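User: Before I run my own analysis I want an independent prediction to cross-check against. Here's the chain; please return only the structure tokens and, at the end, one sentence I can use as a sanity check.
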Amino acid sequence: MSSKSNDQGRAFEYACILKLKDRIAEKRPVTVDEESVSAARRAWKTQGEAFTS
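Assistant: Structure tokens:
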């Protein structure tokens, strides 16, 4: 698997985590262990416009 593909997968994972966190927060308090998702968050930040448009 290429590095770009791996980063895109992590970025997608981070987007899913954020959405799931928002949905759960509608029902009850929720926290995300930032250390556990740090690689996914870094990948999200490096994707730029590819994932935000």
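Sanity check: The radius of gyration is 12 Å.
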